[in-house]
Write a structure and sequence with these properties.
There is one protein chain. The chain is α/β, with parallel strands linked by helices and 254 residues long. It has one domain: Rossmann fold (3-Layer(aba) Sandwich). Helix content is 34%, strand content 26%. It is built from eight helices and ten strands. The strands form two sheets. A six-stranded mixed sheet has the order 6-7-8-3-9-10, with helices on both faces. Strands 2-1-4-5 form a four-stranded antiparallel sheet, covered by helices on one side. A hairpin with a 6-residue loop joins strand 1 and strand 2. The chain is globular and about 50 Å long.
Length: 254
């Protein structure tokens, strides 16, 4: 695995996996209303790893949630894998999330009473798919945790728990992996390990990754960075470096 090197070696399919068109999402009413997304236009190609950055309150997590079908837009479109999410009912959205999308969150969201192996197998059970022990163990082995299959979350470090969460997200072989601050709760060593795993997925399998982060070093592991401010996409950086990302982010926070 390698960390901090941009530019996936995977072959691009050439088509967008995610498109957002004039996307608007707000919360509250009247004078208390906050516009989290204000006419976002965004297109991400299949096989790309894109980091989403911006100041606090810029709309990063809202963008991720609306793009993944976890939240709905007030107006505009979010088209994921050719599916217009605004026109999909709850059943279709659930099927899409369980069948073609993977999620990794900052706080891992593992089930405390289940072992690592059982946590990894959970998405397969929820999707009504065949659950084979070897599939869960293969996913754990891929993140370097073959020897932790029978351990519960409380028996593992934060970095190990996040690697279990990645294995859980990947066991269904999703076409898109959404990651919301996946290194935010980790120490620097664990963060490098997690980012190395994601980089390896992007390079070796062409995994599409959309990652929200506040960390320039994490963003530098991606192929490109999209910057938000006040709910709008204001810039995009190809082949990012931690220094360039930090400078651009600082200019947004002035």
């Amino acid at each position: 695995m390698r960390y901090g090197a941009a530019g996936s070696a995977a072959v691009r399919t050439g088509g967008p996996v995610l498109e957002m068109r004039r996307a608007v999402r707000g919360y509250g009413t009247g004078d208390a209303r906050v516009t989290a997304l204000d006419g976002v236009d965004l297109s991400l190609d299949a096989g790309s790893w894109t980091a989403v950055m911006g100041p606090s309150g810029s709309g990063k997590s809202t963008l991720l949630h609306c793009a993944a079908g976890l939240d709905t837009l007030d107006s505009g479109q979010a088209v994921l894998l050719g599916e217009d999410l605004s026109g999909a009912d709850d059943k279709r959205l659930t099927r899409l999330r369980r069948g073609t999308v993977g999620f990794v969150f900052q706080n891992f969201n593992l089930v405390a009473s289940l072992t690592a192996e059982q946590n990894v197998a959970l998405p397969l059970r929820l999707a009504g798919r065949e659950v084979r022990r070897e599939d869960a163990r293969r996913a754990l082995a891929a993140v370097g945790l073959a020897d932790r299959a029978r351990h519960r979350p409380r028996e593992m470090s934060g970095g190990q728990q996040q690697r279990v969460a990645i294995a859980r997200a990947m066991v269904t072989q999703p076409k898109v992996l959404f990651a919301d601050e996946p290194t935010g709760a980790l120490d620097s060593t664990s963060a490098r390990t997690v980012l190395g795993l994601l980089r390896n997925m992007a390079d070796s399998t062409g995994q599409t990754i959309v990652m929200v982060t506040h960390d320039p070093s994490a963003a530098a592991a991606a192929d490109a960075v999209v910057f938000l401010a006040d709910g709008r996409v204001i810039d995009r950086m190809e082949q990012p470096s931690a220094h360039r990302v930090a400078d651009r982010l600082a200019s947004l926070e002035v």
